[in-house]
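Quick log. Single chain, no ligands specified.
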Amino acid sequence: MTLRKLSVVSFAVLSVVAVIALTGKAMIPLVHADDDKFNFSVHASVFDPSHTKLVSAEWEDGAGCPTGATEVKFNSVSPFNLLPPSSFTDPACPTGDSSDHSNQGLILVKTGETLNNAAAGADIFGVKGITLTEVGYDIRIGSHCGAGAPRFNITTTTGKFYFLACNSPAPTTTSPGLGWKRLRWGTGTAGSVSAFLDGVTLEAITDPIKTMEIIFDEAQDTDPIGLAVLDNIDINGLLRGHGNDPDGRDRDHRDKEDHRDKD
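-> predicted structure:
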């Protein structure tokens, strides 16, 4: 099941049935197929077969959750001069992706109605064969965070399909900050990440992973904001906070062929 092959109508149905909760989080050593080789990347992508031009996905410079960012502030009192550079970290993201040098954020937009057969999202590469211990992301406050989006679609090597949305099931831990929230599912141990099997039955994900992707398909009739800004995509404690295009931004406003992890 992929961003390009699932219809948004089926997404909407799954969104209605998946509204249950859990609680907690931790940073524990990674558990995956090969500790020396595990790495992953997150590529912005859209599903828009009818070319409605109402969805967009892009990694954008300056849109991410700041960790050790540099600010040059004005003095708050006369003569209101510029002060020396200082460091700023949003309390929600005390850790980040050290390879992100432009404070990128993943901007996902769906304009119009949820039943439009289109979605924004991101393909996740490099996860085949791992065992999930923790997943999550940082989300900008004010973003849409619903029972259906943004969500992880997760397929295992045994053919099981899971649905893990922003508030369904509820995150194990939520860490609020100034402008962001850090959401994490799982406690860092195998079997601690639970999601909805086929969008219906909540159960632990214990089988090895085949594919993962992020989907944003709830539009302005669900929430007028119609967008979410994510950062620090977390899989098993490893954070990814940037795109992979040559210009470093990684954008996709078009429908593409599926090119994620293959058999």
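The two ends are 14 Å apart (CA to CA).
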